[in-house]
Amino acid sequence: MSTPGLSFKLEIALHTILCIRQVYPPNTFTRRRAHGVPVYQSRHPQVCSYISEVVAAIGKEMEVGRVRRVTVVVKQVSTGLPMERFIIDLGYLGLDKIKERHQREAPLLGAPLAEDLSLMLRGFLIRLVALDSQLEDNRGETTFGIILETDDDLEPSGNKTADGSAAPWVPALASDTLQPASRSVAPVHHEPLLNVKAVETGVIDIRLMVQECIAKTGLDELRVDQG
Q1: How far apart are CA 104 and CA 227, in angstroms?
Q2: Which Gene Ontology terms cover its molecular function (predicted)?
Q3: What is the pLDDT of residues 155-201, one digit of tens each?
Q4: Which H, E and C letters describe 13-28, residue by residue?
């Protein structure tokens, strides 16, 4: 799967998350289909423009294999606290193949056939949409942020603007990012991760995880049916 194709799937996922978690009213979205699965797309021009710009910026980092994780954090407006995180981890198994493909239009060896990849992505989208019925509702008005983590923990290369214009990425709040489990001997509250779906393309592996935050549940266990 090429990085432009992956960027398009990421855009679908972002729109769908905003709809099913009701960050914006459901009537501001239109229903689409991708790989035979009902998904959603915002009808608001500013939301569409923002997501397109973010995905384009992420796509530039994907092309050089620098993206480690993309997180959509849904936050409560009144408190600013994270309610839940949708985490997409990326693993580049064939970065050299991707670079070779950009240099010459050769097929990516080891990548699945188009039909097999479509089935993988169908399963990914089915599990994503199904999360809405499994997660607790968010209380109050919510907003969202999109966090990009690079493999070297340095700022995205797209932030180095030649014309002095404002950089597209700003440092994320520590409270919004996925925190590693504490190694403290004393028991501490934590926010367990639920592994939702993995797609292994042979070139770029994708893993979707979700995390309900303590500020939302008041619990230190994720109560989701994993069957």
Answers
A1: 44
A2: DNA binding
A3: 777 777 666 666 678 888 888 887 654 444 444 455 777 888 887 77
A4: HHHHHHHHCCCCCHHH
With residue 52 as reference, give the H or E element that holds it: helix 45-63
What is the total residue count of the chain? 227
Can you tell me which residue has the tokens 């990009």?
Answer: 148
Question: 146: how many CB neighbours lie within 10 A of its CB?
Answer: 20
> Are the C-beta atoms of residues 151 and 62 closer than 8 Å to each other?
no
Contact 19, 35 (CB under 8 A): no
Contact by Cβ (8 Å): 7, 62: yes
How far apart are alpha carbons 176 and 224 in whole angstroms?
21
> Cα 80 to the chain's mean position, in Å?
20
- CATH code assigned to 3-153+190-217: 3.30.900.10
Contacts for 140 with CB less than 8 Å, ≥ 6 apart: 76, 77, 78
- For residue 82, give the H/E element and its range: strand 82-92
Instruction: Check: CB of residue 208 under 8 Å from CB of residue 87.
Output: yes
